[in-house]
């Protein structure tokens, strides 16, 4: 069923698809990678580090808060639970 927008012929599924937000895949990162991102963020800023390494800026902020834990952890450790 097409919607009656002028010049547009969109189905209800097309419209619903445009407004659905997907969370995407959940990623886990090891402590070595997190430290590398944190060091880059300290030399630049959180936003640039997030873009450079393809992670969320919130992750960079969180990792900067736990930097001492990351430094003491094994490089391949992924989670602190």
UniProtKB/TrEMBL annotation:
InterPro entries: Brinker_DNA-bd (IPR018586). Residues 24-76 form the Brinker DNA-binding domain. Pfam families: BrkDBD. Gene3D superfamilies: Homeodomain-like (1.10.10.60). This is Pogo transposable element with KRAB domain.
């Amino acid at each position: 069923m097409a919607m009656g927008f002028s010049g547009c012929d969109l189905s209800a599924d097309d419209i619903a698809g445009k407004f659905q937000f997907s969370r995407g895949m959940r990623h886990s990162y090891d402590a070595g990678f997190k430290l590398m991102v944190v060091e880059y963020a300290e030399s630049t800023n959180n936003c640039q580090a997030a873009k450079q390494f393809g992670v969320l800026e919130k992750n960079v902020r969180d990792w900067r808060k736990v930097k001492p834990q990351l430094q003491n952890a094994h490089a391949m450790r992924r989670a602190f639970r």
